[in-house]
Request: fold
Amino acid sequence: MIVAAGITAGHDGRAELVVQVRHENGVVSAVVLDGDTGLRLMAGAGSDDIQTLVGRSWRDVLAHSVLGGT
Reply:
């Protein structure tokens, strides 16, 4: 489950989306997405506000990852 989301500057100065994901074992880890992938994630979620990603399944992150997504 996504428990937090934020915007950060990447090493090249471009915006990146950082989502905190809680895994089934309770561990929380950060997933950093480049801007294009972050926008695909938000579009797939029907969202224009990163805070609405909170509570969504981590599978949404996977589905919209760099591997292609929908």
The CA atoms of residues 13 and 62 lie 24 Å apart. The first helix runs from residue 35 to 44. The mean pLDDT is 85. The two ends are 19 Å apart (CA to CA).
